[in-house]
Design brief:
The complex is a heterotrimer of chains A (419), B (694) and C (167). By secondary structure, chain B is of the alpha/beta class. Chain B contains 24 helices and 32 strands. In chain C, a hairpin with a 2-residue loop joins strand 3 and strand 4. The chains are: A alpha/beta (419), B alpha/beta (694), C alpha+beta (167). Chains in contact: A-B, A-C, B-C. Chains A and C meet through helix 7, strand 3, strand 5, strand 9 and helix 14 of A and helix 3, helix 5, helix 6 and strand 4 of C.
Chain lengths: 419, 694, 167
């Protein structure tokens, strides 16, 4: 098939501005600025059914429509903090197809009336930021960024901002705090960033992949875009496939592709040709899916994945074969969330710390049944109490591992490392 | 007026202004929703999650926009998640359940989380007995821990954050009240969190560490024993102490205090002061005090205090009886009559000053105020009048600060002026040097000290419409101002005399300089030349200690009589030294720079044979056959009210009156406002302006 | 002093944010400062506080919160191996253990010559190319993917040789 987002795999040099232009690059931005009112751009994106690709799946056009025209200035922020274990799609987009993302960002800025936009990259993406700075400079030189674009009154500047090692900054209000020079801790919502965002001004925060879809929608129309994917999940999606598969990597597929097709057709099957035991559908934040035939044949779209008691999220699919005990899996995820808990709210700060001690005890085979019950209880006790999704995420794998894989929490099975 | 919203909380109907948070609405009807990070004086952050409650709202029919009815009442929809009562504003028809099964179990569960890493050292913790975490645990907490003791988080227990405040990192529950107080209330952002998650710790990186004159307040609002004062820690348990209402004696703000006292063996079985705590007075200091006030009372308990009268014999001061000392002093005054100079300071109470003034008048002498400031009497004409309150000021007000560094001279005024500026008041500063208030100012003029008067004279033109259009103008001017400066400031207020929230406020050196001025004391000028050959009667004044020229002048005096707390440099030159009681040992009133009269009460017993100043003056007068009131301070105030028009209507009874103040603090729910004391002994009264029209 | 050593970089950083939002520059300035010694010291904190118009405490809390900033000297280079769940499923834990054994250090330790600190870190968004690590040092950060112990030891040797010349 033809790739729409990962098109660098088919068009060599698309990361060069001339090549990008030859392939229709910046036409969508030009069309928007010279031929469409901001509201028309928003309406087009609304009509496309595009949903946020960062994990929450919120309709992008509706998000843009929340920006009030009574408070100024406005900002657009690209969330390039990509830190969810199992997620590595935004990095590939920014490295290999940067202009499509930047053009999408520019269109978002035009639609929402922002004259300044920031790309928040996780600190580890230092070289990626350096390259984006070059690409931004090239766009400025070519007249696609700067003052009075395409002869209009519209001006736009895009800047990169590097984080410095904090998963929580992927949460949009923590990200905004971080750009402001504060600790990356989430804000209480409401008010939402659409009203009170960067520097207290109306702000749209969109994921990198989301923005990379925008030029396609403006160029080819919402009807075309809607024809891709499924009824509730329009368009294409990049699935980050990792774990026990022979060919891990990013796969751009229409919504609705099954797990079986992703793992066996695209991923080349399971390492050591063992059966799939479990799937994490949205990175370390996911519920653990029991990988039976029903699950493997489930189409990957927002609604269908929910029937498995999980979420599509950022579509970061971690495949786990039968060599692994779930106590080991949740030991890893709890370590991660305990390390990344920002410490702002009590249940997450104390709960992840407590869960870590419990899972360590379980891993050492100490009083497995009692400690497993207590772990489950602590995880449940955290749920619905945390200030932001991180704390809630930290419990998903824990409760589902214990509920769905009870055999993995017996004195004879715990402590086993993966195969 | 804000719109009024009606809702029910735990079945009780309540109506509050729009924008009120659920936690505060509940508080108004006596329902205490437990909180740790929330503090009624700070913006809510919703961090600790202790206040989660069930919140239901009327279900609205999307088609009609009308509430869906269930029988005769609107159908209430509850969300799947609990909500933080501290961040959620009320809305019409809301139903809040803070005691439902779901809400209570959530509160218990958050407590359990907090306790997983909290040490079990309540028996040796200073907060024990007034600790919100301890109280809530006793009330709601689990009886047994599911958390293994061995796995508790361990951290440093005695971290000196500067020389005044200690931090126990294990006890800290990361509520951030101290960090937010320093950043948002004090404006000294010198505390922060370091690291994250369970490793989060409080740090300070200022030089010197925890560099803030408001640091002690963090120990009041800390909901656990993480922050304690070096001064009080391990000093006493809260339940062993008694409370006495008082007024800070160290500057003209007049912060309301409570002294906590205890009788203890290590102090020879005497009742001693263990700590000073803020006492709520929203019109004066709210619930804050500065570190000078919190720690500066120790002088009253000094071993160096005078306990016996002394008279000079053979060139040396020797202990004497009151009878002999008074007789000698009386004979000096009888001889000098109107050749007597009466010199006092605002360290004295109104009652003391009144008696001195009475005596001076009866002898034909003049009562002088020993102060570096001139022109202070203008504040009695242009000062604040009844109904003035800095906390009511915001947009539409100009605050002018001239030749004064409020942060150091009157710290709580700094806080209140900063807050008014943050509420939209235009702050204008004319100073010789930079001050911490500058960053909140609309306009800052730095100039040489000599140029300040002309800059102030030029303000009317410079501010133009801003000044004329302003609803209110408040002028603070420095405590060593000249007559010229005082009148330049007063001129700006000419058209606003007597209007509430408009006025001239002197940033005096002492707590009651304003009282002295109101009672007619004249700022002393040219003292060095006028003392020769006179009999000088000094009360709470130490010119010899401050100025060698005055020391020399006092040596040329005919006789020197001193009543004091200490053997000051001036007392060392005296013929008679009369020991006075400290303000902690007696009753009295001070008049603040804002012209509010406030009562203080005895906290401890008097030192030795020391007596209140007004009594000493009365006893001295008696030697001369003059009757002054000596029976009680209350009766002296009755005389003041009768004799001084500005004090008309003031009585000890009225001064002791209280009214409900918001926020409601100092009650059993210490988690709400902290350990500041509720005011049950009097909010004080404003002096009236005697002649409101020029 | 940053302002003297990197005048252009500092200028570029300050220009990214609205003039009244200088505090936003604190993170990029810390990244810049850390290039010098691999950690941020007290003097740099003071300088950055001045440049951003905030207190030293405000700067210190940023150093404390974000894990890429360090407040104490370690190896000149940091090899930070991702051992998070997806990488671990592809042998990252074993890779880290073997690498440390070859270098004769414990995870979190530093080689005796002070050149390299090896430590485990959380997800680096390169899950399909494990084992992998990032190298943090005077040049900033770079990714090294699909690594083996041999290829890593060879890289360390190259860095050691070039490092001597640099010093």
């Amino acid at each position: 098939m033809t790739t729409l987002l990962l098109c660098h795999r088919e068009i060599p040099g698309i990361d060069q501005i001339e090549v990008y232009r030859k392939n229709g690059g910046f036409e969508a931005f030009k069309k928007a600025v010279t031929g469409m009112k901001p509201q028309e751009v928003i309406d087009e994106v609304k009509a496309s059914g595009l949903r946020g690709r960062g994990g929450a799946g919120f309709p992008t056009g509706i998000k843009w429509g929340f920006i009030p025209n009574t408070i100024w200035p406005h900002y657009v922020v690209a969330n390039a903090d990509e830190s969810e274990p199992g997620t590595f799609k935004d990095r590939e987009l920014m490295e290999s197809n940067p202009f499509q993302f930047l053009e999408g960002m520019a269109i978002a800025a035009y639609a929402t009336g922002a004259n300044a936009a920031y790309i928040y990259l996780r600190g580890e993406f230092w070289p990626v930021a350096a390259r984006l700075d070059e690409k931004i400079a090239e766009m400025e030189a070519a007249g696609f960024l700067g003052d009075k674009l395409f002869g209009s009154e519209y001006s736009l500047r895009i800047h990169t901002h590097l984080g410095a090692g904090a998963y929580i900054c992927g949460e949009e209000t923590a990200l905004l705090e971080s750009i402001e020079g504060h600790r990356g801790q989430p804000r209480i919502r409401p008010p939402f960033p659409a009203v009170y965002g960067l520097y207290g001004k109306p702000t749209v925060v969109n994921n990198v992949e989301t923005l990379a879809n925008v030029p396609l929608i403006i160029a080819k129309g919402s009807g075309w875009y809607r024809s891709l994917g499924t009824a509730d999940s329009a368009g294409v999606k990049i699935f980050s496939l990792s774990g026990h598969v022979k060919r891990p990597g990013n796969y751009e597929l229409p919504f609705g592709t099954t797990y079986r097709e992703l793992i066996y057709t695209h991923g080349g099957g399971v390492v050591d040709d063992r059966p799939v035991k479990a799937i994490m559908s949205a990175g370390a934040s996911s519920a653990l899916i029991v990988a039976d035939d029903k699950a493997l044949d489930t189409p990957m779209d927002y609604a269908s994945v929910r029937t498995l008691g999980a979420d599509l999220g950022s579509a970061s699919v971690i495949v786990i074969n039968d060599s692994v005990e779930m106590s080991w899996i949740i030991n890893k995820t709890i370590h991660f969330f305990k390390h990344e808990s920002c410490g702002k709210c009590t249940p997450c700060r104390e709960g992840t710390y407590w869960m870590l001690h419990l899972v360590e005890r379980i891993s050492h085979g100490e009083d497995v049944q009692a400690n497993t019950e207590l772990l489950h209880s602590v995880a449940r006790q955290m749920q619905n109490k945390c200030l932001c999704p991180l704390g809630e995420f930290s419990t998903m794998a824990v409760t589902t591992a214990i509920e769905r894989f009870p055999a993995d929490f017996t004195p004879s099975t715990v402590g086993g490392k993966h195969g | 007026m804000a719109k009024i919203i009606s809702l029910t909380i735990d079945g009780h109907a309540v109506s509050v202004p729009e924008g009120t948070l659920i936690v505060n609405a509940a508080k108004r009807i006596g329902i205490d929703i437990p909180v740790f990070c929330f503090h009624p004086k700070m913006e809510p952050v919703g961090m600790c999650r202790q206040c989660l409650v069930e919140v239901g709202r009327p279900v609205i029919d999307r088609a009609t926009g009308q509430p869906v009815m269930e029988g005769d009442r609107p159908k209430i929809g509850f969300g799947p998640k609990l909500e933080t009562a501290c961040t959620t504003p009320v809305s019409e028809g809301m139903v809040v359940l803070s005691q439902s099964e779901k809400a209570r179990s959530s509160q218990k569960e958050i407590l359990e989380f907090l306790l997983t890493s909290h040490p079990l050292d309540c028996p040796v913790c200073d907060k024990g007995g007034e600790c919100p975490l301890q109280n809530l645990t006793l009330a709601y907490g689990p009886s047994a821990s599911r958390y293994l003791f061995d796995e508790k988080h361990h951290a440093e227990k005695h971290v000196a954050l500067g020389d005044k405040i200690f931090l126990d990192r294990e006890r800290c529950i990361q509520c951030g009240r101290c960090v937010r107080f320093q950043e948002n209330v004090a404006g000294d952002p010198v505390l922060a969190f370091y690291q994250r998650g369970r490793n989060t710790d409080i740090i300070t990186s200022s030089d010197p560490p925890f560099d803030s004159i408001f640091s002690g307040n963090t120990t009041d609002i800390c909901p656990v024993g993480a922050l304690t004062t070096a001064d009080f820690r391990f000093g006493a348990r809260p339940w062993e102490m008694k409370a006495a209402a008082s007024i800070c004696s160290l500057c003209p703000v007049g912060c309301n205090l409570t002294f906590n006292t205890r009788r203890e063996a290590k102090s020879g079985g005497r009742v001693v002061i263990k700590r000073a705590m803020p006492r709520q007075n929203e019109a004066v200091n709210e619930i804050w005090i500065c570190d000078r006030g919190r720690f500066g009372w120790h002088y009253t308990e000094s071993e160096a205090r005078l306990a016996q009268p002394m008279v000079r014999k053979n060139g040396r001061l020797e202990a004497a009886s009151w009878k002999d000392a008074l007789a000698l002093a009386g004979s000096r005054l009888a001889a000098s009559k109107k050749e007597t100079v009466f010199l006092a300071t605002g360290r004295l109470a109104n009652e003391d000053l009144f008696n001195i003034k009475q005596l001076a008048e009866r002898l034909g002498g003049e009562a002088l105020l020993y102060t570096p400031a001139a022109g202070g009497e203008l504040t009695t004409k242009y000062g604040f009048s009844t109904g003035s309150d800095l906390s009511a000021l915001g947009a539409g007000t100009i605050l002018l600060v001239v030749a004064a560094d409020l942060y150091h001279a009157a710290p709580v005024w700094h806080l209140r002026v900063k807050q008014a500026a943050e509420r939209g008041a235009a702050l204008v500063i004319v100073n010789a040097a930079e001050t911490k208030l500058d960053k909140y100012a609309r306009k800052v003029i730095h100039c040489t000290p000599e140029a300040i008067v002309s800059k102030v004279r030029g303000l009317a033109q410079e501010l133009g419409d801003l000044l004329t259009a302003a609803e209110n103008l408040v002028v603070f001017f420095g405590g060593d101002a000249s007559t010229d400066l005082a009148s330049a400031c007063a001129t700006l207020l000419e058209s606003r005399r007597g209007k509430p929230n408009n006025g001239l406020v002197g940033v005096w050196k002492h707590a009651n300089d304003q009282g002295a001025l109101e009672l007619g004391f004249k700022p002393a000028a040219g003292l060095a030349k006028s003392l020769k050959g006179k009999t000088v009667y000094l009360a709470a004044a130490d010119p010899a200690g401050a100025d060698p020229q005055l020391a020399a002048a006092l040596r040329e005096a005919e006789a020197v009589i001193v009543q004091e707390l200490f053997l000051s440099e001036t007392a060392k030159l005296a013929e008679v030294v009369l020991p006075a009681q400290a303000f902690t040992e007696r009753e009295g009133t001070y008049t603040t720079g804002e012209r509010r009269v406030q009562r203080f009460y005895p906290a401890v017993s008097p030192r030795g044979a020391a007596r209140p100043d007004f009594v000493i003056t009365a006893l001295l007068a008696k030697e001369l056959g003059i009757e002054l009131e000596s029976r009680s301070a209350r009766l002296v105030m009755d005389q003041i009210a009768a004799a001084e028009p500005a004090f008309a209507g003031i009585s000890y009874g009225k001064l002791a009156e209280v009214a409900e103040q918001w926020p409601l603090i100092g009650r059993n729910d210490l988690y709400y406002g902290g350990t500041s004391y509720q005011n049950s002994q009097g909010l004080g009264m404003h002096l009236d302006l005697v002649d409101k029209k020029a | 002093m940053l302002a003297e050593k990197y005048p252009n970089e500092v200028k570029k950083i300050m220009a990214k944010y609205p003039p009244e939002r200088k505090q936003s520059a604190v993170m990029p300035l810390l990244h810049l400062a850390q290039l010098e010694k691999g950690f941020v010291d007290r003097h740099q904190i003071t300088e950055i506080a001045g440049m951003c118009g905030i207190t030293e405490t405000d700067v210190a809390e940023i150093v404390g919160f974000y894990t890429l900033y360090h407040d104490a000297p370690e190896g000149k280079l940091r090899i930070q191996v991702c051992t998070d769940i997806a990488c671990a499923l592809r042998g990252a834990d074993v890779f880290l253990a073997d690498l440390c054994a070859r270098l004769g250090i414990e995870p979190g330790g530093t080689t005796p010559d002070g050149l390299v600190t090896v430590e485990a870190v959380m997800c680096l968004a390169a899950c399909d190319k494990a084992p992998m690590f990032q190298l943090q040092g005077p040049e900033g950060i770079s990714y090294h993917e699909n690594m083996t112990v041999d290829s890593t030891v060879a890289l360390v040797q190259t860095l050691r040789d070039s490092g001597k010349e640099v010093r």
